């Protein structure tokens, strides 16, 4: 048995208001007056001085606002990297991502591509990155994806949606300030929160489960139940607990794997551009036969929070389009193997997947 040796985030600050310490954290990491810090910030915060006024820019430091209507693309990473190289006198001192999973993934990918040659699509896969990334910091403003702790950065490329999984991907520093999540719209709170819940269910019921993943997964699942089912927490408690649920859920899958909802949601995202959180919800809602208890609870939470999911999104698809989605879903073999065991191909056929997609 060859046990996996995973890197973790090296430094983390947790606390309401801890975003105020950002400048103090960054100061010793400045490599010189010509080596700027690049702040990638979700454009939802454009004009939000409550947040941006606390980022103090010096020398050639820059804030770049990034749109998050669509999930990050390899082409978007390459454009950002080129722009940063062209406008900087020296290699940046660091890249700081402030936003949800989309911005955190962009920050990780940009920091890798500032030190590695070629295009980011060449690094989609496992352990293809050769050189350490520039110093990178992750500051989540919405909780659930676990992108703040993970060893991957999920990107849609010209021919696949796949992460850059490498030892250089995890953040060097994370700042967990739940106050930054206070204005997340309710639907988005639910979708991204359910990403965390689904990570837990897929990890805890998977064949790759081990004590490391189980302990983190159980802790995150209990927190999700407290937040989304019991409804007894104050707003601040709920925000803090969801931030930690996201962290633990991410830690759980680092050492196991996700499952069927993720495999099928990647198909939806690749073909229809449906984002990760809502896509997972749409798929998971129809997976009773695979995750009976998990789906039952999910439906209770959905009802409790009055969340309406889109329906009939696959009705007008052509056979060719179904094939594309099925190909993407089936290519994620470790996810199926985790969910159903080594013989998963006996139960999961293309016809079966098509029937499932047709219900969505
Ligand atoms: P997101 O980053 O796409 O953001 C969702 C929406 O919430 C956006 O419109 C954004 O502007 C808004 N938002 C974020 N913070 C806000 C705030 N404080 N106030 C108001 N609005 C706010 O959503 P997400 O669900 O966090 O991330 C999804 C992405 O994460 C996908 O691209 C997915 O592939 C990726 N992901 C990565 C990993 C990983 O391990 N790297 C894991 C899961 C998902
Ligand atoms: Zn996920």
CATH class of the largest domain: Mainly Alpha
Ions and ligands: nicotinamide-adenine-dinucleotide, zinc ion
User: What is the CATH T-level topology of the largest domain?
Assistant: Dehydroquinate synthase-like, alpha domain
Number of strands: 9
- The appropriate CATH architecture of the largest domain is Up-down Bundle
Overall pLDDT score: 97
Major β-sheet strand ordering:
1-9-6-4-2-3
Summed up, the domain count is: 2
- Tally of separate helices: 14
- List SSEs in N-to-C order: EHEHEHEHEEEEEHHHHHHHHHH
Query: What low-confidence regions span 5 or more consecutive residues with pLDDT below 50?
Result: none
Distance between the termini: 40 Å
User: Helix/strand/pairing class, anyone?
Assistant: alpha/beta
Q: What is the CATH H-level superfamily of the largest domain?
A: Dehydroquinate synthase-like - alpha domain
Strand content: 5-15%
Shape category: globular
Main sheet characteristics: 6 strands, parallel
Rounded to an integer, what's the Rg over CA atoms? Answer: 20 Å
Helix fraction bin? 40-55%
Write up what this structure looks like.
This protein has 360 residues and is an alpha/beta fold. It has 2 domains: 11-181, Rossmann fold; 186-358, Dehydroquinate synthase-like - alpha domain (Dehydroquinate synthase-like, alpha domain). Helices cover 46% and strands 11% of the residues. It contains 14 helices and 9 strands. The chain has helices at 22-26, 49-52, 74-87, 101-113, 186-204, 211-230, 235-254, 260-272, 276-284, 292-304, 319-331, 333-340, 344-347, 350-359, and strands spanning 11-14, 37-42, 62-66, 94-99, 125-126, 136-140, 154-156, 161-165, 173-176. A 6-stranded parallel β-sheet has the order 1-9-6-4-2-3, with helices on one face. A 3-stranded mixed β-sheet has the order 5-8-7, with helices on one face. Helix 8 (260-272) crosses helix 11. The mean pLDDT is 97. The structure holds nicotinamide-adenine-dinucleotide (NAD) and zinc ion (ZN). Zinc ion (ZN) binds at residues 145, 195, 199, 262, 276, 280. The site of zinc ion (ZN) has 6 residues, from helix 5 and helix 9.
